[in-house]
Amino acid sequence: MNNKTLRLTWAALIAALYVVLTFVANAAGLASGAIQVRLSEMLTIMPLFTWAAVPGLAAGCVLANFLTGCALWDVVFGSLATLFGALGTYYIGRKKTVLGPVCPIVSNAVIVPLVLQNVYGLEGSYWYFMATVGAGEIISCGVLGWLLYKVLRRTEIFDATGDNN
After folding, report:
1. Four-point Cα dihedral 4, 98, 19, 76, nearest 10
2. Per-residue pLDDT tens digits for 35-75
3. Rounded to the nearest 5 degrees, what angle is found at the Cα of 61, between the Cα atoms of 104 and 141?
């Protein structure tokens, strides 16, 4: 199979998984607000395996935020936080995999509190929201993402993409 086609397929699959997992977290009341544990954010570990995860995560976040009824600026800036985190994870690469979850945790912990305050008008300090969003990201990206990494590392599923770090 053509590598471009394979990468596009992986990106689409990752985007779809992101949307589905966001809907699951949303149904459980975990996907938004001051304290959020988006199950879909565990997928931000995927750029350690393939570049296709970067556009897949960005597209998935845009779609998930839009389809769950987020405000326009949340769609924009929340998705940029995920994109920045995915790019950071990709550029860290496999040589420093322990740092893989750090980029999405930091980018979301820095950007999302501004969205909560300025878009949704939630009352609370920036530092409070940074701590609550950061804690949710540690659970999603750090714990769940790392578990996903451990499982996927044992497979050779991404070797066919030819763009492993």
Report:
1. -90
2. 789 899 999 999 999 999 999 999 999 999 999 999 999 99
3. 30
Cα–Cα dist 122/141, whole Å: 24
> 85: number of CA atoms within 13 Å, CB side?
36
With contact defined as beta carbons under 8 Å apart, do 119 and 74 qualify? yes
Q: Could you tell me the pLDDT band of residue 16, with boundaries at 50, 70 and 90? A: very high
Decide: 47 and 89 in contact? Cβ < 8 Å.
yes
User: Whole-angstrom Cα distance, residue 115 to residue 77?
Assistant: 7
Domain ranges in the chain are: 3-161
- What CATH number should be reported for the domain whose range is 3-161? 1.10.1760.20
